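User: I'm putting together a teaching handout on how multi-component assemblies are represented. Below are the sequence lines for each component of a complex, exactly as they appear in our records. Could you produce the 3D structure of the whole assembly as C-alpha cells, so the students can see both representations side by side? Please keep the chain order the same as the input.
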Amino acid sequence: MLDAIILEKAGVPAIPIVTDAFDSTAREMAELWGIPDFRFVMMPHPLGSLTPDEIGRRADGLVEKVLALLRQGQPA
Amino acid sequence: MLDILDPTIATPRERIDYAARPKQFDGLRIGLVDNTRRNAEAVLRALAARLQAAYGMKLDAVVHKHQRAPLADAQLAEMRGRVDFIIAGVGD
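Assistant: Of course. Below is the structure of the complete assembly, with chains in the same order as your input.
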C-alpha cells in the first residue's frame, strides 16, 4: 500500500493489491499518510498456500479490478 | 507538569496531484513491485501475463523489496520513465 502511495506521489500510476485480511491495515496506512480515500484492489486471503492453478484463478479475478482502478484513478 | 502524548491525533489530509491515467490499455508497459511475501510474485506475474495476452501490454520491470520496507529510491528511479503503470503487492 505504501509503495503505491510513494509511486503515485512520484507521478507513476500505481495499483496496490491487498488481501482482505489486510483491509483495515491498508485503510489505516492511507489515513496515516493523509489520504484516507486512497483506493486499492482487494483479493481473498491467504496467498501463501495457493497452488499454481489457484494462483492462476486468483489472477483471473484481478484483471478487471486492476483495469478499473487504472482507468478510474484515485479520488481528487 | 505532565506531558501527555496522544497517538490518536489525526494526520492532516494531504492533496496529491495524481499521475495521469492512460487513455487506453493497448501496449502499456507494466512494472511490478513484489513485496516478497510467499506467492506474491507468482500472482503479480500471472496477472501481468493476462494483461499482456488481453491488451498487448509488456512486463518491463520487476522490483523486489522486503515486505515491511518501503520502496527504495533506486527502485523508484528504476521504474520511472520505464513503465506506464505499476502493480504493487501482495499482502498476505
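A couple of points students might notice: Chain B touches chain A at residues 10-14, 16, 18-22, 25, 31, 33, 35, 37-40, 42-44, 46-47, 49-51, 54, 65, 70-71, 76, 79-80, 83-92 (CB under 8 Å). The first strand of chain B starts at residue 29 and ends at 34.
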